[in-house]
Fold:
Amino acid sequence: MRRFPVFLFVLSLAFLLGLHSIGDVEGASGYAGIDMCKGCHETYYDSYASSTHAKKAISGSPANREACESCHGPGSSHVEKGGGKGTGMFTFGKKISTKEKASKCLACHEESKHLAFWSMSKHKSAGVSCDNCHSIHTGGEKNLKAAQSILCLGCHKDIKAQTNKQSHHPIKEGRVSCSDCHDPHGEFGNKMVKADSVNELCYKCHADKRGPFMWEHPPVEENCLNCHDVHGSNHSKLLTKRPPYLCQSCHGSHGTSAYYSDHTMPMPPDGSINSSANKLVSRSCLNCHSNIHGGNGPHGANRGQFFVR
Ligand code: HEC
Ligand code: HEC
Ligand code: HEC
Ligand code: HEC
Ligand code: HEC
Ligand code: HEC
Ligand code: HEC
Ligand code: HEC
Ligand code: HEC
Ligand code: HEC
Structure:
């Protein structure tokens, strides 16, 4: 009921301005319409035309709004002047503030669930804008300017160095992408990670590490990153340190041999616990404690409690 007078008001305003139809956006408020842009900006026209934004079938898309001018603002004065720079078009150039650029996109995307945490994201506060990652005119998947391993690592050089280390998540191999683990638009959790905790994130792909275990290893339950780096490491299996040093950072600070002599039980059967063969060779502590993420065997014969198989 309350809308009716507003509609009448708009109608009479449109009439006063000499417009023929208010249903047709062209001409209203200085919009020139997409047909005017095509001839002079063929490349931009083509890239737009092949993007999701140009789909008439998607309600709320620019195609159903002001097309080019949904993002670049009204263009009739630009057209009248025969085009050119600095004739009032909105650009995504370097001099325009991040906030202003993002606001063009958020006008439509504010409600999108992907952007629910944008306003509190580190990218927003660091001055990264939508168009640093997306370009409507390059046509990639999700309008991304490049594959993530190039796009994200172009700014995150420290992470790039890590992903080149000997042991790494297969990011550059294309089997895992940054956005499998992070939401670049922000997340409620730490470091824009797509889960409530680091462990919940890891369990998504490494479900076997969730357990339940009869004998838990407390640092595993607490945080996988107690022992693993996530992007890359110079030690095998993404370990932060090589065993025995990794283990000894928590289990006693004395040297390896001193530690071994702390073992109270006779093992292995030949009683060679202190033989150098068991100390540093091969898998070190893991020679025996191979179920390091948790044991399920009963205490006794197979020593589940001590993560010994
Ligand atoms: C008569 C030709 C012509 C028409 C019509 C035209 N443009 Fe342009 N436009 C230009 C030229 C020339 C430039 C300057 C390009 C350059 O120097 O790289 C330009 C620049 C732009 C810029 C950058 C402005 C700046 O300040 O840097 C945008 C955005 C733009 N046009 C969008 C549009 C849109 C949207 C339409 C349709 C509503 C349109 N143009 C219609 C010729 C035209
Ligand atoms: C969904 C928003 C959106 C729509 C719709 C859109 N553009 Fe753009 N346009 C951008 C963004 C973002 C950039 C800057 C990123 C880049 O260079 O790819 C840009 C860049 C441009 C530029 C270079 C000047 C500048 O702003 O950096 C021109 C010219 C242009 N667009 C013309 C057009 C024309 C013509 C259409 C319609 C056929 C159109 N655009 C539709 C978002 C849009
Ligand atoms: C006039 C409204 C409107 C504007 C302005 C707009 N978008 Fe969109 N955009 C949509 C709609 C509608 C969709 C399709 C539904 C969806 O994915 O939310 C879409 C889809 C997308 C997609 C997914 C594309 C795909 O192929 O899956 C990206 C990325 C995107 N927009 C980024 C942007 C960016 C960046 C800007 C600003 C430069 C922008 N949009 C401006 C309405 C808009
Ligand atoms: C740091 C890079 C980055 C920034 C900044 C960024 N995005 Fe994205 N965006 C991405 C990536 C990567 C994806 C693809 C995610 C995926 O495939 O899971 C994406 C996907 C999207 C989608 C599609 C979601 C879907 O799955 O359909 C929309 C819409 C979108 N972004 C809009 C925006 C808007 C609007 C802004 C600015 C407010 C923005 N993005 C800023 C990297 C970014
Ligand atoms: C397998 C999951 C995973 C993948 C894939 C991944 N990350 Fe991470 N990333 C994490 C976790 C977990 C953290 C640390 C969270 C914490 O400290 O609580 C993190 C932290 C970060 C940080 C913050 C570092 C710091 O020291 O503050 C950045 C930046 C980052 N990642 C960027 C990236 C980029 C860029 C990619 C893609 C090249 C990527 N990540 C791929 C899981 C991942
Ligand atoms: C234009 C440069 C740029 C691009 C592209 C970029 N980032 Fe960032 N990113 C930053 C800046 C700046 C920060 C804030 C400072 C920092 O922590 O390094 C940041 C922070 C982060 C953080 C840490 C967040 C936190 O809470 O501490 C993560 C994770 C991250 N980016 C992931 C990504 C992912 C994933 C991509 C690709 C989809 C990406 N970034 C693309 C510039 C960029
Ligand atoms: C999106 C899925 C995904 C997530 C989330 C994930 N990983 Fe992985 N992870 C993989 C894949 C894929 C491999 C490679 C497996 C292979 O090569 O067979 C891998 C391998 C590993 C490896 C062995 C590396 C090596 O050198 O053999 C470790 C350790 C690991 N991940 C730990 C983690 C930790 C810790 C987390 C949580 C911070 C995590 N992963 C989260 C997919 C994931
Ligand atoms: C106490 C240290 C420690 C913690 C904490 C830890 N790991 Fe490990 N993880 C290791 C060691 C040591 C290896 C190497 C085992 C081997 O070579 O047999 C390993 C290997 C792995 C591997 C590759 C081999 C395999 O068993 O699949 C994955 C995946 C993995 N860990 C995931 C996780 C996840 C997920 C978490 C958190 C739930 C986690 N780790 C917590 C010590 C740890
Ligand atoms: C971040 C610290 C930390 C790291 C690293 C760590 N542990 Fe543990 N571990 C613990 C804690 C805490 C317990 C619980 C019992 C305790 O307090 O000693 C435990 C328990 C154990 C137990 C069972 C002890 C018992 O009495 O039930 C064994 C066996 C064990 N760890 C072996 C290892 C091995 C082997 C490594 C290296 C691959 C390792 N741990 C790395 C903290 C750690
Ligand atoms: C030759 C096999 C073997 C090797 C190698 C080994 N362990 Fe053990 N460890 C055992 C067995 C078996 C037990 C159970 C002891 C018991 O039943 O009293 C045990 C018990 C433990 C315990 C719990 C009891 C205690 O003494 O505190 C810890 C912690 C432990 N080992 C850590 C380590 C670390 C750290 C290393 C590497 C520096 C290591 N172990 C190397 C076989 C081994």
The pocket of heme C (ligand 2) is lined by residues 34, 37, 41, 44-45, 48, 53, 62, 67-68, 70-72, 91-93, 131, 135-137 (CB under 6 Å).
